[in-house]
Design goal:
three-stranded antiparallel beta sheet; two-stranded antiparallel ribbon; 501 residues; mainly alpha
């Protein structure tokens, strides 16, 4: 079982990032600004040298550390955004995930997580004296993160709307947000540990030579995804409704439901390679049973919100589909690789404004590529994690980090973002307790006479009464919830308590 470790800082109160590696104990490369995992910048004392592969490089004395606050703010803002879209998405369907094609505010959350992981991995493995030892720790950490995701999102915790616990192992969901992050972290760490050439960076050419193999592997993964997505044959298939009373759904009968396919290159919800691979490898009973395409016009009279099925709803509306599937996770991992590139710039470029310029010049082409591919016929789709979606969200991730870095670390304007900084320094516990509804569900277990009379629901109804609006009251409640978790994270920071895997 995955275990979280509580660390108490005893020196300068530095925090442990969500995916900080144990390789933080490794010696640091000698350079004008060596950067520790999670975003700590330490002034070094000599010129940069190429990596040593024999692990014999002695530790280098460094000046006191200065934390890269912008990465914490970026991470905390991502967690806050996830809470916002998850809890207020029902009241404001326009910010919820796009039903299938398109991109909304919620669709940027996962790429933000993955991008931040990539940047952190670069900083963590800036110097690796023992590659096998580093790889061993990466494997252990990836397994822990995957198992934690399995516990939180596999179906054991049912959330605020269903205060029950436990899961049928025959129907447990194997994939999820943390599981996808663990895959991206694992692949990005492999690239940073094993696929970095022993070349000192002093120009654009040497920069490319140093990380050439990473670019090749990322391109191969993207090509593999595109080939499978557009050329894999999708046969007709059938599914059985789970956790639903079939008799109460018009047009559906008990037993298996058939989905007619027999196509190649389809990106539609019913017939695509992403779903096909997941059905064969994971099994239909282990997929997400309430996929986002149930909010499409074909499947909901309240689209883009959930609602009753239309009279002429197609048979695939109630079919399972996992938005964090196996094939789409390959493309999602490339977002981590983009984060690696931004981290490399952070490591090798000394001037702060030079970093800002290079990050900005990298983000713009990514955004242009995303929009260009969409125009050429590759639509934005978060459930499929299409190439256009990957480019536009990776570009937006880089652009956001650039803005935050400029405000927080260049101009040192930090008070307006301190809540997000605290949340980013304890991102894992905030995500588990808040975004996965563990704390609200536990709090709802205490009520007066009726389960509806609990503190969580009472507070939300109070806001709805104050604002004379159900949706605006819900938004006010969610903003209060984010503030609450920011204060909790700040309290943990003051106590120098940081929770990591």
């Amino acid at each position: 079982m995955a275990s979280a470790v509580v660390t108490v800082a005893v020196d300068d109160g530095e925090a442990t990032p969500l995916l900080q590696s144990a390789s933080d104990d490794f010696p640091r490369r000698r350079g004008s600004s060596a950067i520790r995992g999670g975003g700590e910048i330490t002034a070094s004392v000599s010129a940069e040298e190429p990596d040593s592969n024999d692990g014999s490089t002695p530790p280098v004395a460094t000046a006191p550390k200065q934390r890269l606050v912008s990465l914490d703010v970026f991470r905390g803002l991502t967690v806050a955004l996830m809470i916002l879209v998850d809890d207020a998405g029902k009241a404001f369907p326009s910010i919820n995930h796009a039903p299938w094609f398109g991109v909304t505010l919620a669709d940027f959350v996962m790429p933000f997580f993955l991008f931040g992981v990539g940047v952190s991995v670069t900083l963590v493995f800036k110097k690796v004296p023992s590659k096998p030892e580093a790889m061993k720790k990466v494997v252990i950490r990836s397994i822990r993160l995957f198992l934690l995701g399995l516990i939180l999102q596999g179906g054991y915790f049912h959330g605020r709307d269903d205060l029950t616990y436990g899961v049928d192992l025959g129907k447990i969901r194997w994939m999820g947000v943390l599981q996808r992050i663990s895959i991206g972290y694992f692949l990005a760490s492999i690239m940073e540990i094993w696929l970095v050439n022993n070349v000192a960076v002093d120009s654009v050419v040497t920069f490319v030579r140093r990380y050439y193999f990473q670019l090749v592997l990322a391109s191969l993964l993207g090509a593999l995804y595109m080939v499978l997505l557009y050329f894999l044959y999708i046969p007709s298939w059938s599914f059985q409704l789970l956790n639903l009373k079939v008799e109460s759904i018009p047009g559906y009968r008990s037993g298996n439901q058939t989905v007619q396919c027999g196509v190649r290159g389809s990106l539609e919800p019913a017939c695509n390679a992403v779903g096909l691979i997941d059905r064969y490898v994971l099994g239909q009973q282990h997929l997400y049973q309430r996929p986002v395409y149930r909010r499409t016009k074909e499947c909901s009279v309240n689209s883009p919100d959930y609602g009753p099925l239309p009279a002429d709803a197609p048979g695939w509306c109630l079919a399972p589909f996992d938005p964090e599937g196996i094939l789409s996770s390959l493309m999602a991992a490339i977002t981590c690789f983009v984060g690696l590139h931004y981290g490399h710039i952070l490591v090798h470029v000394q001037g702060e404004m030079e970093r800002v310029k290079l990050w900005f010049l990298t983000s713009i082409p990514l955004l242009i590529l995303g929009f260009g591919l969409e125009v050429l016929g590759i639509p934005f789709s978060k459930p499929l994690y299409t190439l256009s979606y990957m480019f536009i969200t990776a570009g937006a991730s880089g652009f956001l980090l650039t803005i935050i870095f400029y405000i927080v670390d260049v101009k040192c304007i930090r008070k307006p973002t301190v809540i997000f900084q605290w949340m980013g320094m304890n991102a894992l516990i905030t995500y588990a307790l808040a975004a996965c509804d563990l704390f609200p569900a536990a709090l709802q277990g205490f009520y007066w006479r009726s389960p509806e009379n609990n503190l969580v629901d009472f507070t939300e109804r109070l806001f709805q009464t104050i604002f004379h609006s159900k949706k605006w009251g819900t938004l006010g409640f969610v903003l209060l919830e984010i503030l609450f978790w920011g204060v909790i994270a700040g309290f943990l920071h003051m106590k120098r308590v940081y929770i990591k895997l």
